[in-house]
Amino acid sequence: MATIDSLTDDGRRFVTDSHLATLSTIGPDGGLHVVAVGYTLDAGFVRIITSDGTQKVRNIERDARATVAQVSGPQWLSIAGEAIIERDPDAVAHAVALYAQRYRQPRVNPKRVVIRIEPRQVMGSAGLLV
Q1: Contacts for 99 with CB less than 8 Å, ≥ 6 apart
Q2: How much is the pLDDT for 40?
Q3: Backbone angles phi, psi at 18, to 5 degrees
Q4: Which of 14, 85, 89, 129 has its CA 20 to 30 A from that of 98?
Q5: Distances, alpha carbon 119 to alpha carbons 20, 22, 50, 57, 116, in Å
Q6: Which stretches make up the Pyridoxamine 5'-phosphate oxidase N-terminal domain (predicted)?
Q7: How far is CA 6 from CA 21, 24, 89, 121, in A?
Q8: pLDDT digits (tens, 9 = 90+) for 32-66
Q9: What is the largest CA-CA distance in the chain?
Q10: Which residues contact 50 (CB under 8 A, 6 or more apart)?
Q11: Quick one: pLDDT at residue 1?
Q12: Long-range contacts made by residues 61-65, C-beta under 8 angstroms, separation at least 24?
């Protein structure tokens, strides 16, 4: 089973290029809830910034399973794991700084939280993983 450590140089580039992704969580009815997100990968964790109280936050608080999937042309990568919600101001500031490096400076949001995913399984197209 591939892990984050299995990313090749092309795989590491792929997760730092400015691509959007989807976040899949388990909805209240047991079905998938899929939304577009920006994310970062740093120190072995996926981080997504969002507003507290959103459906994705409520889903993770009920069921920690989450998957981020990114696609660009023929290349794709899927990172699945356990998620937690971080509300600590330092954790939020760190995630905002990472997001600003990959995408752009996000708008001010006093209700911002971080979805932090600890990857358990990584799958991807040829060349992105060893």
Answers
A1: 38, 40, 47, 49, 106
A2: 98
A3: -80, 75
A4: 129
A5: 18, 15, 19, 17, 9
A6: 8-122
A7: 20, 22, 31, 10
A8: 999 999 999 999 999 999 999 999 999 999 999 99
A9: 41
A10: 37, 56, 57, 112, 113, 114, 115
A11: 80
A12: 61/85, 62/26, 62/28, 63/25, 63/26, 65/25, 65/26
Residue for token pair 């006093």: 110
Q: What local confidence, expressed as pLDDT, does residue 122 receive?
A: 97
What own/partner pairs with CB < 8 Å and gap ≥ 24 does 31-40 have?
33/59, 37/68, 38/99, 38/102, 38/103, 39/68, 39/70, 40/95, 40/98, 40/99, 40/101, 40/102
Residue type, 76: W
The Cα 100–Cα 78 span in angstroms is: 22
Tokens of 1: 């089973």
